[in-house]
């Protein structure tokens, strides 16, 4: 049995907190001793955990470290949810569980909190003096940042090893940490199953097949491309209703509504809904468009929901979406997505039996691949590291932090060796928590 410190957001509103609750409960059922540390800023009003330690309680956390606890940090692209990770991971090195691979927002929140006028200088040091920082002529700011400064290179080296949820960016992570990088598919449970009263109307309204996009609506989900894909075919325009279910800004709602109106597409912007209503919309959908470009996350909850719900799912053939077997989804090439989307929707419209059979196979695969048991198996395997090897990785981590702090070139072997030896002396003196960037 191991003593595990699980650092995570804890609020009910956080998807990562919901994920953590499943994992912590399963670890507890396996007789693992787990202490939850909240990584959130400010007071927690509605926590999923009956008992947790605040990240600001350094004495309690240090006591856990001194007791030999293994620290696991949930890393996501939201500063308010993950500020505690940044505050303590250098003092208490451990495993990073990466839910996102684009982490600029986390970085921006951090550097803004310090009131430092060092944003551009920091990025130039990390990505080179020629990194394009001027956004005035950039059409897609998110795509620009993902390509040029995703900040994975800033966050990943803070951890001794990494668990990620797909193969996406795993090789990139391996160049940033000395320890192992394990790809463990995200654990997830299907949304609430709600029966549709009239089976004859399921996935169809007034003879129109329902196609849906779920989650926060933005251009990264390629909603405009779905509209254009429907508009590219007279049959699709006549036979499809397109639902957008999730939070949406008024400006973006107007943009896609105007586009759909101009192209003659039946668009229904549902907006944010309750969990039960969300499940009803999922159950009543024939085809789920789960598209991302550029990809920013290591796993997609919407993708897993769609597969677990047995839906024919259209995905962009990039990032974590590429991990799903080709025969369980329809993969859309990013460089020809409008034509690919039209093909996928027409396939479901013309061959509904194929769509349902594909959905059944996808559900069976997803139930095994995204199970809580399988995830915890992966976590335990990752933690099964020889103590001496783990200690060396911790030392390597702290050395990297020192190098970053004093701007010593890591290729300077003499300086590197000297710093490693100094860190080892600190270890012997029993002052490990004094090492690192605060």
TrEMBL record:
Pfam families: Glycos_transf_1. It comes from the Bacteria. Residues 208-365 form the Glycosyl transferase family domain. This is Glycosyltransferase involved in cell wall biosynthesis. It comes from Brevundimonas faecalis. SUPFAM superfamilies: UDP-Glycosyltransferase/glycogen phosphorylase.
